[in-house]
Amino acid sequence: MQRFRYHNFPWVDKTPTSPAALQHRITDLLFNSTTCRCKVDMCNTETGEYRIVLQGTLDWDWEEPNPKSQ
């Protein structure tokens, strides 16, 4: 499992992506969060379309590497 960092959020928002790649990033995000919630915002039984909202707090107990010091 990798650390999910703030610079990973644009990748999650990128579409389209494979379900496996999205699962990997979302799993990293959830495991690196101190709190998280999930809400089913919409589910269309006719088309199969759905919208899920994740909300949480990313863990701050780690330090982001400073690129200038490397």
Mean pLDDT metric: 84
Instruction: Give the strand order, joined by hyphens, for the main sheet.
Output: 1-2
* Major beta-sheet overview: 2 strands, antiparallel
Q: Count of helices? A: 2
Envelope shape? globular
The whole-angstrom Rg is: 15 Å
The poorly predicted ranges are none
Query: Could you say how many structural domains there are in total?
Result: 1
Distance between the termini: 23 Å
Element string (H = helix, E = strand): HHEE
Number of separate strands:
2
Helix content: 25-40%
Percentage beta strand: 25-35%
Alpha-beta classification: alpha+beta
Concise structural overview:
This protein has two helices and two strands, in the order ααββ. It has helices at 9-13, 19-31, and strands at residues 33-43, 50-58.
Give your account of this protein's structure.
The protein has 70 residues and is of the alpha+beta class. It has one domain (6-57). It has 2 helices and 2 strands. It has helices spanning 9-13, 19-31; strands spanning 33-43, 50-58. It has a two-stranded antiparallel ribbon with strand order 1-2. A hairpin with a 6-residue loop joins strand 1 (33-43) and strand 2. The two termini are 23 Å apart.
Labels describing this entry:
single chain; 70 residues; alpha+beta; two-stranded antiparallel sheet; 2 helices
List the helices and strands and how they pair.
Layout: H1 9-13, H2 19-31, E1 33-43, E2 50-58
